[in-house]
Design a protein that fits this description.
By secondary structure, the protein is α+β, with helices and mostly antiparallel strands. The chain folds into two domains: 76 residues, Alpha-Beta Plaits, CATH 3.30.70; 72 residues, 2-Layer Sandwich (Alpha-Beta Plaits). 27% of the residues lie in helices and 42% in strands. The protein contains four helices and eight strands, in the order E-H-E-E-H-E-E-H-E-E-H-E. The longest helix is centred in the middle third of the chain and has 13 residues. It is elongated. It starts with a strand and ends in a 12-residue tail after the last strand.
Length: 169
């Protein structure tokens, strides 16, 4: 069975770590669906969130290989039922008098917002689960997507469960 897996990886915030992590996927022929990186609440530690499709065997091999990498502090497979998962989309569509009201109605329904408005284009910001982002993109295709950028997913476990390095005081 081909499942979507989301893995949180805490790494040292130094040059070359991201290259080693992404290179591990490449060398072993694993495809990354989404990869995001950012600083954490702990100085010197970054969090990488990776999503990929595969079976349990592939997931286990990826986790094992990540744990072996230098400067990887912690690796955890996040339970999608107990995790808040979000993605950000910036989407630019054509702005015409004939379509403006329909686009603005869709923006309201999807709880997104217009962050840039010109006579010829609208830039819309939307956050949510990937399925919501996909649905909005599909809807906007009829209005003429000029450009778009997706962040990839970020994820945190619900409640007081936290991915930690053991360095916290």
């Amino acid at each position: 069975m081909d499942n979507l897996y989301v893995i949180g990886v805490l790494v040292s915030n130094i040059a070359g770590v991201l290259s080693r992590v992404s290179g591990m996927f490449t060398r072993r022929g694993f495809n990354i669906d989404s990869l995001t990186v950012g600083e954490t609440e702990t100085a010197g530690i970054s969090r990488i969130t990776v999503s990929f499709h595969g079976d349990d065997d592939i997931k286990d091999r990826i986790v094992t290989q990540l744990q072996k990498l230098h400067d990887v502090r912690e690796v955890e497979v996040l339970d999608k039922h107990d995790t808040v998962i979000r993605e950000l989309l910036l989407l630019k569509v054509h702005n015409t008098a004939g379509t403006r009201q329909d686009i603005m109605a869709a923006v309201e329904i999807f709880r997104s917002k217009i962050v840039d408005y010109t006579a010829t284009a609208l830039v819309i910001e939307l956050t949510g689960e990937s399925s919501k982002i996909d649905a909005f993109i599909t809807l906007m295709k009829d209005y003429g997507i000029m450009e778009m950028c997706r962040t990839g997913i970020v994820a945190l476990e619900r409640g007081d469960n936290c991915l930690k390095t053991g360095l916290e005081g």
